[in-house]
Amino acid sequence: MIRPHLALTALALLVATPSFAQAPAASATAQSIDPTRLAVATTIATTVFPDGTYKRMMGETMSKLMDGMMGSMMKLPVRDIAKMSGLSADQLSKLDDSSLEEISAIVDPHFKQRTQLAMDAMFAGMGDVMSSYEPRLRAALARSFARKFDPAQLGEIGAFFATPTGSKFAGDYMTMFLEPEIMGEMQGMMPDMMKKMPDMLAPAIKATESLPKPRTFSQLTPAEQDKLATLLGLDPADLRKSASRAEKDKK
């Protein structure tokens, strides 16, 4: 139960950062930026994104944030979460107001402690990994500043950041979103968002109704089955057996 949550958390954090896959294209773009303009933008980027930013973000504050969000989610009735799976009204009516917290207390009495320890370890590791990417992200941020702001605007921004107030603002900006005030609002949003999720998903489901359903493994041609096995690094015969068992279990 904990692994999917940690994977999604890590994915969300990585998606929120610029794509490293586009680094070659970004480097090519940098050649067309005036060096003097880029130098000013680099100073600004270093001020707003100083060394150790990810270490600060992945520390105790992030752990508390995720702990609070998980706590809010665990108090949700299972019925509210089941709505997202597309259960019928009749099926939902058979569920009571039991929460995930009540269920986990039976299945895994140490769930909260297990989740907290795992998150702390994961964020510590992510802090180390993401810190190694900071120079590349800082350079990309500088290129972005250099493209979006003209020399006069860059000068004004740099002049502000050179003041005590501007320096404090720039140095704290990235981590301000993890302050208790904002964290509290994010935690409070979770139960309401989970309740509204079925309504949010409905338009997406409706939009794809006209498309054919994905094919089952048995509907693939032998050549397609073999190609799929190769792409997955599996033996075709083993994949056919496991897929056949899975399709039978669904019936």
General description of the model:
- With 251 residues, this protein is mostly helical.
- It is 75% helix and 0% strand.
- The protein is built from 14 helices and no strands.
| Tally of helical runs | 14
In sequence order, what are the helices and strands, one letter per element? HHHHHHHHHHHHHH
Number of strands: 0
Helical amount:
over 70%
Largest beta-sheet characterization: none
**Chain-averaged pLDDT:** 78
Tally of discrete structural domains:
2
* Percentage beta strand: under 5%
How many angstroms does the end-to-end distance come to?
Answer: 25 Å
Topology summary:
Elements: H1 2-15, H2 23-30, H3 35-48, H4 53-57, H5 60-74, H6 78-82, H7 89-93, H8 100-107, H9 111-148, H10 151-161, H11 164-173, H12 180-207, H13 222-232, H14 236-250
Helix pairs in contact: 3-9, 3-10, 5-9, 5-12
Comma- or semicolon-separated keywords:
single chain; 251 residues; mainly alpha; 2 domains; 14 helices; 0% strand; extended; disordered N terminus
Short description:
The chain has 14 helices and no strands. The chain has 251 residues and is mainly α. It is extended.
